[in-house]
Specification:
Blueprint: H1 38-41, H2 55-58, E1 74-77, H3 78-82, E2 88-89, H4 91-97, E3 107-110, E4 120-123, E5 125-126, H5 128-136, E6 140-143
Parallel strand pairs: 1-3, 2-4, 3-5, 4-6
Length: about 140
């Protein structure tokens, strides 16, 4: 068996419908499109609903605005910091470990969870509860 000898299984392929080749072919005259109407003459535009007002014109436009000065923060909770083995935690270390993907406007430390050791944390913002929990365990908080 060679590549040029490969053929599909017998009866698995249908012959192509040759339309518009005369009345004798069985697919002549209207070329299987029927008589008149948009389907016989051409294509209807996408979204056409037979003369009814299309959905894209019935729905209201998007309103409001996008604040171009909005700040996107990388947020980490205290319990996530507690799982790390390092004593000093910086935004660069968290990015290196894959805990945060991008820094954005800065790193925010939030207060969910508990700590079991003293750690030094450098970040751009600390919530009050996060700051209290870190200091309660003898750790230090450093705002960058």
């Amino acid at each position: 068996m060679r590549l040029n000898e490969l053929k599909p299984a017998e009866g698995s392929m249908h012959s192509k419908k040759r339309i518009g080749r005369g009345i004798g072919s069985g697919h002549g005259k209207t070329s299987t499109r029927g008589h008149k109407g948009d389907k016989a003459r051409g294509q209807t535009p996408p979204g056409f609903e037979g003369g009814q007002t299309p959905l894209h014109r019935r729905l209201p436009r998007k309103r409001g605005f996008t604040n171009i000065f909005k700040k996107e923060w990388a947020m980490i909770n205290v319990d996530t910091l507690g799982k790390l083995s390092e004593d000093s935690i910086t935004p660069e270390l968290l990015m290196e470990k894959g805990i945060i993907n991008k820094l954005g406007s800065g790193l925010r430390i939030l207060g969910r969870g508990e700590l079991d050791k003293a750690i030094t944390v450098k970040a751009h913002y600390f919530s009050k509860t996060a700051e209290e929990k870190i200091k309660a365990k003898g750790g230090t908080v450093e705002v960058i």
